[in-house]
Amino acid sequence: MKIIQSFWTKPTFKNNKINSTDRNKGGWLTKKHNYMSWALSCLQLRKFYEKVELVTDEKGYDILINKLKLPYTNVTVVLDELNHYHPDLWAVGKLHAYKIQTEPFIHIDSDIYIYKPFPSSLETSSLIVQNFEKGFFFYDKVFNELKENFDYVPQALFDSIEKNNKIISVNAGLFGGNDIEFFKEYTHCAFEFIDRNISHLEKIDIGMFNTVYEQFLFNALAEKSNKTVNPFISDINPSFDGIANFTQVPNTVSFIHTVGFYKGLPTINEILEHRLLNDFPEYYYEIINLLRTKQL
């Protein structure tokens, strides 16, 4: 199974971080740490997988390939097609990457670092997610916003809530599977959800909407089609305790995801920097030099 990553640069270069869900600088404290995260994520994946591909736009190609020279085995430059979308819709780049796949894949976010291969049982699964998110409080708030302000909300979301008596979603930090036809249907529904409500986006927390059209909708459609979804992590709480525990790498921890708020913690930024310096010093110093000479 191949690994893919995606980099739609428009959210990264948004001028100001207005909301906690914004993805300027990739959600990191500085652009330096964003680039270091990309480097560490890609380089660790390449330790264990022969095929690690990138889906990006022209600017992303220039940064990750021309300048950082990250060792992706294939690069598809198509995400400039999305530049008419609002920059806070940061998951549309991932959606498009899922949409264009023609063979089994696992998409890995750029804030994930692995220290051993994924289990073979995961790689043979029809649908793969990082973990389920059951009853996480923020989904209720954003879903109520959507019901009040949108013209169209997929019926599958209402059906899922009625069936489970709560919102059951997934985390798409690690995401993919063998069921390519399902991903075609899912991404079509997700883009329809977005496109039919474009004129109402300013009425909601756009950043939180990403969790609904990417993650909640995926699980709702899987439930509707009676699909089995295989989680990589079986149980996790809304604070994602332990998932960014760099101090135990690589002896007792082999999977790190600096999800959401972790990227805003100075200690996590410092540990990331130290990790890249220790494990891949040539990339660390190249990023420092490119920033110093204003090439990044």
UniProtKB/TrEMBL annotation:
InterPro entries: DUF6734. It comes from the Bacteria. Pfam families: DUF6734. This is DUF6734 domain-containing protein. Residues 1-289 form the DUF6734 domain.
